[in-house]
Design brief:
By secondary structure, this protein is mainly beta. It has 2 helices and 7 strands; from the N terminus they run H-E-E-E-E-H-E-E-E. A hairpin with a 2-residue loop joins strand 3 and strand 4. About 4% of the residues have low confidence. This is SHSP domain-containing protein. It holds the Pfam family HSP20. Belongs to the small heat shock protein (HSP20) family.
């Protein structure tokens, strides 16, 4: 995970390579939007603990999937009919869909668990023995 580059650093990297003023602002703006949620991934020895901060989201609006080592958390927040009928002068919350993911190469599918409490989703992903899928080829 040390080789991962956060999305917001692409702008700084582009500015160091191409020192133009506002050329990259429009299409290299931070990928993070107000609808994104923060996510922490912890290696806890025999399992991974993923904490996703999703305030104001209910259990029915969250989808958690593990597919071949890729853990995806999707939030699909929809407004209720009561919220749609209100006459807002300014509104900074609303409907959005957001997906965050992380690749866990030794994640096991058995024993997965998730819990939502106080706006924080905690997903426990047990580890399995890593299978060697690499074949060494000798060069003649």
């Amino acid at each position: 995970m040390a080789s991962m580059i956060p999305y917001d650093r692409y702008n700084r990297l582009a500015r160091s390579v191409f020192p133009f003023d506002d050329v990259f602002d429009s299409f290299l703006a931070p990928v993070s939007t107000p609808a994104d949620f923060k996510m922490d991934v912890e290696d806890a020895g025999d399992k991974y603990v993923i904490s996703a901060h999703v305030p104001g989201v209910t259990r029915d609006q969250i989808d958690v999937e593990l597919n071949e080592g890729r853990l995806s958390i999707t939030v699909d927040k929809k407004d209720s009919d009561e919220q749609k009928s209100k006459n807002y002068l300014q509104r900074e919350t609303g409907e959005y869909t957001c997906t965050r993911g992380v690749f866990l190469k030794d994640a096991a599918t058995a024993g997965l668990s998730a819990k939502l409490a106080d706006g924080i989703l905690i997903v426990n992903v047990p580890k399995q023995d890593e299978k060697a899928n690499v074949t060494k080829v000798s060069i003649d």
